[in-house]
């Protein structure tokens, strides 16, 4: 997947909350002249067939109870700077939950409070692909999550605005919008910081985007397994790819408590591929399945559902015969001397003081249990 595509998806996630989105893709074009002269054309029919030389446009719409936020990002490979990309953004807001065809006057965005920006245009020519990856890396590696997302939004939006051509004036027209497509046009006079400030005039702007048959949806986790490790249930899985900007894996857990199934959700941040469920009880039925959610809020189909019955393991019972006796001491001594290697369950059963090792202190603890029972 292209680095430009990663940036497009990431910036879309920055501009709005990730609770619900409508997604379109297609083409956007315009001419520009002034400090720079040229044309911009992005056309993306299939978002799954991207390469480093691809181009295109998207639209993401987030709607809550009082406001709809519309962002149309587009990109193309830079013609003059190999390894760089030209980025372009339309951003509009509309009160209410239903979006109607309309016209917006664009304004210079306020980085300190993006919600005060009703409509704007950003043009960032020749942004380096390496810089793009540096920007999105904190999200991809889990450094940024819901607890610090707002601060990171402010910091990065400020950085983007400082590199952008910003509007002095202009208009955005939304001509049509429905469940299948949206179209419109735009123009503007943009400037960049400097003295005198470089001016770019954008003309003949247009976009036509359609709703694809499938959303940008991650694939479900693969290779899902569960095993009992001591007093815990170890869940493990793998990812079929890393090009969907995964945010977290959600563990869907059901507990059969006196014939009443209780649902519990546990979120594990990407890129973790295992989870020790310590909240399990012996002789109890559980079922688990997994889903993946990406930073845009799209969720995968569920993985296979696995049933798990937690067997009772008695601490001190190294040979698992439901008795604590001299045979367990023999097993312990063999492990300590290195004659045998304990399994995970044997390690848990023998580590009486939970210090992570098997030694003479654990032997003493087992001997005390045997003497107390006799």
Describe this structure as you would to a colleague:
The structure is a single chain. The chain folds into 3 domains: 208 residues, no CATH class; 89 residues, Immunoglobulins (Immunoglobulin-like, Sandwich), CATH 2.60.40.10; 48 residues, no CATH class. The strands form 3 sheets. Strands 1, 2, 3, 4, 5, 6, 7, 8, 9 and 10 form a 10-stranded antiparallel beta sheet that branches. It has a 4-stranded antiparallel beta sheet with strand order 14-13-16-17, with no helix packed on it. A 3-stranded antiparallel beta sheet has the order 11-12-15. The chain is 19% helix and 42% strand. It contains 6 helices and 17 strands. It has 374 residues and is α+β, with helices and mostly antiparallel strands. The protein is elongated. The N terminus is likely disordered.
Instruction: Sketch the major β-sheet.
Output: 10 strands, antiparallel
Q: What ranges have pLDDT less than 50 throughout 5 or more consecutive residues?
A: 1-10, 13-21, 47-52
What proportion of the residues form beta strands (DSSP E)? 35-45%
Q: Based on CA inertia axes, which overall geometry fits?
A: elongated
The sequence of SSEs as H and E is: HEEEEEEEHHEEEEEEEEEEHHH
Radius of gyration: 28 Å
Mean pLDDT: 79
Q: Report the span from N to C terminus.
A: 68 Å
Number of strands: 17
Structural class: alpha+beta
Domain module tally: 3
